[in-house]
Input
Amino acid sequence: MPKKERMLITGGNALEGEVRVSGGKNTAVAVIPAALLADEPCTIENLPDIEDVHALVDILRSLGAKVTYVPDEFMTIDPRPAESHKVGFQQARRLRASYYLLGALLGRCGRAMVAAPGGCEIGSRPIDQHLKGFQALGAEAEERGGMIIVEADELRGSDVFFDMVTVGGTINVMLAAAKAKGTTVIYNAAKEPHIVDLANFLNSMGAKVKGAGTDVIRIRGQQYLHGANYAVIPDQIETGTLMIAAAATRGDVIIRGCIPTHMEALTAKLLEMGIKVSDSDDAIRVRTLGAHRAVNIKTQVYPGFPTDLQQPMSALLTTARGTSVITETIFEQRFKHLDEIRRMGARIRVVDRVAMIEGVPQLYGAPVTTTDLRAGAALIVAGLMARGVTEIYEPEYIDRGYEHIEEKLRSLGAEIRRETIE
Ligand code: EPU
Output
């Protein structure tokens, strides 16, 4: 039997001090597979030391790539010895982003066979748009026996129109198109900061990507991509989670090493709640003086309010004065954490994709279970706010995306630890 763990939080301490944000998870999981497109070794820095990154290292090594990884320092990927184009079930299910191996291997060797991806269960999460994009570039794509198979005699640049804004679809098509013959134009592209970061990484390898950060991206494919040294951007969602945790404990925290302009949707909502937020070039300070006011939130694609922060934000709103209404427009099952937070005394009603949160004066510690990564972040926020001890079961989900979260929170004064259970 594998060891089981639980996280224990004694709530009530106001977080105070300074904390440094880690490199972005959702940019790291795109940039690491992208290194397979290079014809020389690449070195990547500022990668977060998280389970999703470890899983990708294992996958790249199983493909034959030479990977030297010193956590919190650098990762060097030499893709030249990689001969395989297959990623099996046990590996692909470890993370959602294993689907980026489809675009990266298709670009690299003209074919890829990757088992259906794993990741958090927050909705049905189809990848039809990714496959439609590969087909537009001249690939055949099919799903057979749990494997996704894509293959092309020659990838040719083309126009790709997405039916909806998809982060994963945009990234996957960018990866394949970087090595296609001719120019690909992606319409209705996602604009998230990690799309821009991936474009910058590809361009540092000699790719020709223009327009990332707008809804039309142009990629002129290149035959040869050289090696590059690159540092990924800070994690927008970790930054947001720390901002919310600071506010939730009525603390005073400076988050360093972040990009404040990526946080504008959250900052606007915190200000509306009556929370003080100020920023400089690469730091944000969050502190609370008066009462928190209820606010309404609708998740949207960037630059709207990110779905990944909806869950921690909902925990914060449980004690705000008045009734908050959250509408989740991106994933249909991203409210599972609310059942757990209800056990802690929150008053919440969910109808379809809308949650109504009526503020209560106080949450109380209780045993709760994590159902996905950001649900885990929400439970941590709730635990930090609550009176008494919160036991969080299955905290492993949190390790997929948050680097050293307990150490960081402890350094700000939180009482949080992990223990092994029988
Ligand atoms: N969609 C389709 N067909 C597709 C692709 C997407 O119907 O082919 C739908 C999805 O079901 C969803 C919507 O389009 O309703 C948006 O999905 P998107 O493709 O943008 O999301 P994703 O690529 O699966 C990434 C992040 C998520 C983040 C979303 C939205 C990675 C590895 N994952 O997911 O991150 O929530 O974008 O910003 O980058 C997380 O970090 O906790 C996380 C879940």
